[in-house]
Amino acid sequence: MRVFVTGATGFIGSLIVRDLLSTGHQVLGMARSDAGAKSLIAAGAEAHRGDLQDLESLRRGAATADAVIHTAFIHDFSKFQENCEIDRRAIEALGDALAGSGKLLIVTSGTGISTSGTGASATENDPPVSSKVIARGATEEAAAAVAARGVRVATMRLPQVHDTVKQGLVSYLVQVAREKGVSAYVGEGRNRWPAAHVSDTAHLYRLALEKGEGGVYHAVAEEGVAHREIAETIGRGLKVPVVSLSPEEAAAHFGWLAVFAGRDLPASSAQTREQLGWNPTGPGLITDLENMRYF
Q1: C-alpha to C-alpha distances, 152 to 22, 37, 113, 170, 193, nearest whole angstrom
Q2: Strands across the sheet with 104-110, in order?
Q3: Is the Cβ–Cβ distance between 287 and 227 less than 8 Å?
Q4: What is the 8-class DSSP label of residue 126?
Q5: Using one digit for the tens of pLDDT, what is the confidence trace for 61-74?
Q6: What is the Cα–Cα distance from 224 to 24, expressed in whole angstroms?
Q7: Is residue 76 within 8 Å of residue 83, measured between CB atoms?
Q8: Is this model's pTM higher than 0.85 or not?
């Protein structure tokens, strides 16, 4: 297939591009810069200049493809709500090019916007919360609107995607610990975050492309890693004390990250594994944190 990939030079997108090319697919990757375009061409892909706010470039890229994988997102949490609305408009623009075609559009969401509310692991069947509650809900609202226009839509909900360089929100925990001189968790630190290695995540996108019929998939290798264990591993890596904070202290310590720091967000991928034959084999989150270079 000829696949249009947004975020093609990013942390996850670059591995998706590599995986697609290695298995015989053609890739048209969106690039925001000349350097990004050159890296895509060097990898064996075609480059398509554009960005998330250039809606016409998104339409043009999608119109030439057999399927679209949308991984691009602006990771500026100081403008999180604005960036979620940018993502909504980007998905709608991709839908403009694919409407009525039945072609597959894979969009990227997060397991954290879908929780069972009972302490049990969130599943693929759990509906997303409204964007009025969590701004990232805009992604799945846009996906539903596009599906209603005759596009086959799959939503890939991501946990903390990691290697020894990046670990999703955990990277910000490392940054805060480095700045504050302590590695912290909230209360007893029993709240859990799901995780998956970046290579396993990239592979799952390809499986969804080749085998998926649409719907929701969870890219979860570990259902929940305790925040205390994460904080203790970071503390050893940075050689700083590990401390427990009250919810009130956490707000001042973590800043914007406090919204997530104390939340229990376990998630299951049982249905995804069964439907797509996904068997993650990469290192766990703690292993990558133990092997990253802190200094």
Answers
A1: 25, 28, 21, 33, 30
A2: 46-49, 26-31, 2-6, 67-70, 104-110, 152-158, 215-218
A3: no
A4: S
A5: 999 999 999 999 99
A6: 34
A7: yes
A8: yes
